[in-house]
Amino acid sequence: MSLRAVLTGCGAMSAGWIDAAKQIPGLSIAGFVDLDPRRAQAAAASWGGNAQTGADAVAMIDALRPDILFDVAVPMARHTLVAQALSRGCHVLTEKPMAETMAQAADLLARAKAAGRIHAVIQNRRYIAPIRRIRRLLASGVLGRVTSLHCDFFLGPHFGGFREDMRHVLLLDMAIHTFDAARCLSGQDAEAVYCREWNPPGSWFAHESSAAAIFELTDGAVFTYRGSWVAQGLGTSWESAWRIVGERGSLVWDGHDDIRAEIVGPPRSHLFDTAQSVEIPPRDAEDRIDGHLGVMRDFVAAIEGGLQPETRGEDNIKSFAMVMAAIRSAESGMRVAVDV
C-alpha cells in the first residue's frame, strides 16, 4: 500500500520521525509544515524528493489530501491540529503529550473513533530493547508478582525554546515516558497518586522542573518516581534508573544496557535469604524495537489492516492520565485519583 503523509513541526524532534519514515516501504512525506519556513525547507531537504513546504497545516492537508498527519507540533497546537486532520480523513501519529488536558484527549479519541481513523502516540521508549527484555522477564513470573517499581531520573539539559517556559515541564514533557514504561512493564494501570513539584534555586526553567510522585497501581503495587531536569552532575540515563521488586526477587536496570536480577535461593542462614542470579532474556526478533521506527511500523501496519498499535490513543490516555493526576496532586497537595 502507498501512503502519503504531511509532517507538522519541523524542529529538532522531527529528525527522528523523518529518519524512521525513510525506512518504511510505500510511505512518503509529501509536505512539511512549520511556522518558520526555513525549518520546513530544511526538513524537506533532509527527506529529499519534491515535498511541498508551508506554514499552514490545514491548507497543506486540504491541498495534498494525505493519508496521514505526523504531528510534531508544540503541545499547545495539538488539539486543534489533530482535530482538523481527523475531520479531513487523516490517520494521526502524534507527539506526546497527546493533548494539554484530559478533556482534549478524550475529545480527540472520540473524533478518531467517529472518523474511523487510527490515532496513536509516538511513545517511543516502549520500543527499546531493554524495556522489551525486562517485560518478558517479568511476564515469565520468575520474580513473582510485581509489588513495587522505583525510578530515578536526574539530568540537567539546557533546551532553550518552549520547554524552558512550560508549566509542569518535567511531568508533561518527560515523565510520561517513565510513567508509560511503568505501565508497560508491570501490566498495571494507576489508580491514585500523591505528587510534589518544585523549581529548585538555580533552575533555568521558569516553572516546576523537579518532581517526586507515589502511584498506587491496580494490582496493589506501588510505583515511585523521583526526577529533576536541573540536576547537575552524575546524570542518570534518559530512560531513568530502575528497581523493580517482586514477591520472589528484584531487578535493577541502569537505563542503559546493565540489567540484573536475583531471586531467592536456597534456605537462608542467619538474617537474610540467599539470592541467585537470573538470566535476562536476550533480544528477540519479535520484540518490535527501534524507537520511533518501531512505533511507526506498528502504526502503518494498523492502517494497512493489522492490529491496533500498542501506543494507540485509547491506551496512551492511561499514561497521560497519570501525568495529569500528578499535576493536580502537586497543585492541591492532596492524593488524587487517576481517572480516565
Strand content: 15-25%
Binned, the helix content reads: 25-40%
Main beta sheet strand tally, sense and closure: 9 strands, mixed
The structure class reads: alpha/beta
Task: Please give the number of β-strands.
Answer: 15
* Total domain count: 2
Give the N-terminus to C-terminus distance in angstroms.
35 Å
Q: Return the CATH topology of the largest domain.
A: Dihydrodipicolinate Reductase, domain 2
Average of pLDDT: 94
Please give the radius of gyration in angstroms.
21 Å
Sketch the topology as an H/E string, one letter per element.
EHEHEHEHEHEHEHEEEEEEEHHE
Fourth CATH level, the homologous superfamily of the largest domain: Dihydrodipicolinate Reductase, domain 2
Which CATH architecture of the largest domain would you pick? Answer: 2-Layer Sandwich
Oligomer designation: single chain
CATH class of the largest domain: Alpha Beta
Order of the strands making up the biggest sheet:
14-13-12-11-7-10-9-8-15
Number of helices: 9
**Overall shape:** globular
* Unreliable spans: none
Note down, in words, how this protein is organized.
The protein is of the alpha/beta class and 340 residues long. The protein has 2 domains: 3-117, 3-Layer(aba) Sandwich (Rossmann fold), CATH 3.40.50; 129-286 and 320-337, Dihydrodipicolinate Reductase, domain 2 (2-Layer Sandwich), CATH 3.30.360.10. The protein has 9 helices and 15 strands. The strands form 2 sheets. A 9-stranded mixed β-sheet has the order 14-13-12-11-7-10-9-8-15, covered by helices on one side. The chain has a 6-stranded parallel β-sheet with strand order 3-2-1-4-5-6, with helices on both faces. A hairpin with a 4-residue loop joins β9 (210-217) and β10 (222-228). α1 packs across α8 (292-303), α4 (78-87) packs parallel to α5 and α6 (129-139) packs across α7 (169-186). The longest helix has 20 residues, at 313-332. The radius of gyration is 21 Å and the shape is globular. Residues 131-251 form the GFO/IDH/MocA-like oxidoreductase domain. GO terms for molecular function: nucleotide binding.
